[in-house]
Write a structure and sequence with these properties.
By secondary structure, the chain is α/β, with parallel strands linked by helices. It folds into 3 domains: 127 residues, 3-Layer(aba) Sandwich (Rossmann fold), CATH 3.40.50.300; 41 residues; 216 residues, Rossmann fold (3-Layer(aba) Sandwich), CATH 3.40.50.300. 40% of the residues lie in helices and 22% in strands. It is flat and about 105 Å long.
């Protein structure tokens, strides 16, 4: 269906990748992975025709229907959410207009019989194509997808300009899904989605009959949807026939085999070079020497791609603090509504967060997860009740607005130095390297950093400030899979207490020891890890 052959791409005078060959077949679900900056989005843009500056061939059937979802949703205004979604398939709109014209012609009592037959034939073709594209149930599908993506039915006819950026992303995603093309190319579809919506989208894509080529930072999502992985790394593209977990294991197997092969080859080359050096001056061995020289000239050297350096970094052990990190008594939070009524986020919450607890706060979008965190951190006043932070507890808080504390004109290293003034230059560079700022990355100005890089910078500092209680609101947002793994491993070794919100199920499973669910104006406490919480929810207990 999609064939990429001998593709090479230069960008900024540098070779991005060379001699790329792979195919995507009808109905295949394929994940695209690789470090930031290796050209994943560029590959997408070449496939959809936005970038034609490459060598090689990208081919697909002429009638292939393709749709592309990216983070750049463009300007949206002047239409309702439903109208935006319905506008996704221009061909359906064109066919609708044609069918109206045909109907009007057939109503003409003076229509010539031969002309009527021609109109009926054309109308039949248009109706067949319209039905094939799902034109007859387009609006009901659009309603269903919008609702599945978390947009309530009463908001479907709201002007799209009234929605925030994150909700506009959902509308743009719905527009792509409703088209039901042969191939959907998706760049980070899970960004800005809550867990409930991610699960809905995951199920929708698994049941979708068309092909998918996507990248995502959510490994559980990719594992569930994709059964083939295309890796972009080290200026080459490699295909793995399995899910993300298989890819990780197989990549290590292949690398080990390559290292072994390269070692054997080097040993053989060394023997030949030693023979040449030893006998090149002897006429009696001239033929043998010449034969080995020719052999070395023709040999294809086995190259082992350089692997990202694994940084070993020990975070400081925070001061112990008391056993009762947070004591919550009769806590309630009420927000005023625009119409003068009140919305109770939660009430009657009584809880104790113990030392070395790792508490995940879960709930649907808008339930009040961030509000609970802010109330505990005393970033917003409680309506009723009391929150007591224990003695000797040093709290570090990461929120979605933490980026505002960064100085845009500072470099990464300068920003870290200002936050950790007592730390040595070597310590700071090792810390930054552990969070994937390596070499000249530390000289980057904050204003040039991506959202993921800003998150990594803030989290690196937060973990090094001797905080023994970390409150993290969506720390995995903006982070790619590798960065999430770095943060996860750091938090698993952390000897303090963690209270956090995340929509990443792998992160939740690996870290959670207790769950607070914000739902229906209350906070329900579930002892046990995330899988135990899911099991209790499934059983209704």
């Amino acid at each position: 269906m999609l064939n990429i052959s001998q593709l090479s791409k230069m960008q900024g005078g540098e070779l991005l990748y060379d001699n790329v060959n792979f195919q995507i077949y009808p109905g295949e679900k394929v994940g695209l992975v690789g470090p930031n900056g290796t050209g994943k989005t560029t590959l997408f843009r070449m496939i959809i025709g936005e970038d034609n500056t490459y060598e090689g061939q990208i081919s697909f059937p002429e009638k292939l229907r393709m749709a592309y979802f990216s983070q750049n949703v463009g300007e949206m205004k002047g239409s309702t959410a439903l109208e935006v979604v319905l506008s996704g398939d221009k061909k359906i709109q064109k066919l609708q207009d044609e069918l109206k014209i045909f109907e009007e012609k057939l109503c003409d009592p003076d229509l010539d019989p031969d002309e009527m037959n021609k109109v009926l034939e054309k109308m039949g073709d248009a109706q067949t194509e319209f039905e094939k594209r799902g034109g007859y149930d387009l609006e009901s599908r659009a309603e269903e997808v919008l609702t599945g993506l978390g947009i309530d039915p009463e908001d479907h006819r709201k002007d799209v300009a009234e929605f925030s950026g994150g909700w506009k992303m959902r509308i743009a995603l719905a527009r792509v899904l409703v088209i039901k093309p042969d191939l959907i190319v998706m760049d980070e579809p899970t960004n800005y989605l809550d867990l409930e919506t991610i699960l809905w989208l995951e199920e929708w894509l698994k049941n979708y009959e068309g092909a998918i080529f996507m990248t995502t930072h959510d490994r559980d999502f990719m594992n569930s949807v994709c059964k083939k992985i295309v890796e972009v790394a080290h200026k080459r593209v490699t295909v793995y026939s399995g899910d993300y977990d298989f890819y990780e294991k197989e990549r290590e197997v292949r690398r080990s085999q390559l290292i072994s092969e390269a070692k054997k080859q080097q040993e053989s080359i060394a023997k030949d070079e030693e023979f040449i050096a030893r006998f090149k001056a002897r006429a009696s061995h001239a033929a043998q020497v010449q034969s080995r020289v020719k052999k070395l000239d023709k040999i294809n050297r086995v190259e082992v791609p350089t692997e990202e350096e694994s940084i070993s970094f020990e975070f400081p052990t925070p001061p112990r603090g008391g056993d009762d990190v947070v004591v919550i008594k009769d806590l309630a939070k009420v927000w005023p509504n625009p119409d003068g009524t009140e919305h109770t986020v939660f009430e009657d919450l009584n809880a104790i967060i113990k030392r070395q607890d790792a508490v995940a706060v879960v709930g649907v979008n808008g339930a009040g997860k961030s509000t609970l965190l802010k109330t505990i951190c005393q970033q917003t006043d409680a309506t009723k009740g009391d929150v007591q932070i224990g003695p000797s507890i040093k709290l570090g808080y990461f929120s979605q607005f933490s980026f505002d504390v960064l100085n845009p004109e500072s470099t990464v290293l300068e920003e870290t130095q200002s936050a950790l003034p007592e730390a040595s230059d070597g310590y700071l560079r090792n810390l930054l390297a552990a969070f994937l700022f390596r070499g000249d990355d530390v000289k980057k100005k904050v204003r040039h950093l991506s959202g993921g890089e800003k998150s990594r910078l803030l989290l690196a500092v937060l973990l090094s400030q001797n905080n023994n209680f970390l409150v993290l609101d969506e720390p995995t947002n903006h982070l790619d899979i590798q960065s999430r793994e770095v943060l996860l491993q750091a938090l698993k070794k952390f000897e303090g207490t963690v209270l956090f919100v995340s929509h990443d199920r792998h992160f939740l499973r690996e870290l959670t020891k207790k769950v607070y669910e914000v739902a229906k104006n209350e906070v329900i406490i579930y002892p046990g890890n995330y899988d135990e919480y899911l099991a209790k929810k499934a059983s209704g207990s």
